[in-house]
Design brief:
By secondary structure, this protein is α/β, with parallel strands linked by helices. About 45% of the residues lie in helices and about 15% in strands. The strands form three sheets. The protein has a three-stranded parallel β-sheet, covered by helices on one side. Helix 1 packs across helix 3. The longest helix has 24 residues. It is globular.
């Protein structure tokens, strides 16, 4: 039976854990080029080890990328046009801007997963779900999809759950 693991990478890779265990890794607030390179390398290594560990147990690993991140607080951006009786489309972001914003954060996990067979690891990417027709949406059925600029609201989570369909399809197919 196929078992899965879902791990989300949100924003710039940040190390979590006791600093005593990572004496050679710079403080997470250090944004120097060498510090960021070290953090990316460590994240890449840890993700690779995680995939290998679960593959060794017969599990496929699903890595979920973050939804599009906005440069502004979405609910506040929604409030202005609503209060003025204007279209909420003013809160939408052009798809190309969304692609630029995500380029740095989604590259690393995608590269690690691409080194594996599809039966070992796969990426779940909500980007196309939130960003189609040339824009990244902030609202669906008159409900905000975001709690702030990066985090999905309750409704955004329900809307975003569609990205798990490939997992469900595979589990159903493999259980037959």
């Amino acid at each position: 039976m196929l078992r899965t693991l879902s791990w989300q990478v949100d924003g710039i890779p940040v190390l979590k854990g006791c600093p005593d265990f990572f004496p050679s890794i710079p403080h997470v607030g250090d944004r120097s080029s060498s510090a960021m390179d070290q953090q990316r390398e460590l994240l890449s290594q840890q993700l690779e080890e995680t995939i290998q560990f679960f593959n060794g147990k017969g599990c496929k690993v699903w890595v979920m990328l973050a939804p599009p991140e906005f440069a502004y607080n979405v609910p506040l951006k929604l409030a202005a046009p609503v209060n003025e009786g204007k279209s909420i489309k003013a809160s939408f972001m052009p798809r190309n801007a969304g692609l630029r914003r995500r380029a740095a954060t989604d590259k690393l996990p995608s590269e690690v997963v691409s080194k594996h067979k599809s039966s070992e690891a796969a990426v779940l990417d909500p980007f196309d779900l939130f960003c189609s027709d040339g824009r990244c949406i902030t609202v669906e059925d008159n409900r905000s999809l975001y709690y702030d600029k990066t985090h999905l609201s309750y409704y955004g989570s329900i809307y975003g759950s569609k990205v798990f369909q490939p997992v469900a399809d595979e589990l159903i197919r493999d259980s037959k």
